[in-house]
Amino acid sequence: MPELPEITALADFLDEQLSGARLTQFHLPSAFALKMADIPHESLIGRTVEAVGRRGKFLVFEMVAVSQGADAEPAYLVVSFAKSGWLWFADNQRDTEATATAGYFAAQLGFSNNGHDYDVTLADTGTWKGLALFIVRQPEEVHGIAELGPDPLDPAFGLEQFSRLLTKRQQVKGVLKNQKLIAGIGNAYSDEILHAAKLSPVAHASSLEPEEVERLFTTMKDILAGAAREYAGKLPDELKPAKKASMRVHGRTGEPCPVCGDTVREVAFVGTSLQYCPTCQTNGEILAKRGSSDGS
Question: Which residues form the Formamidopyrimidine-DNA glycosylase catalytic domain (predicted)?
Answer without folding.
Answer: 2-112
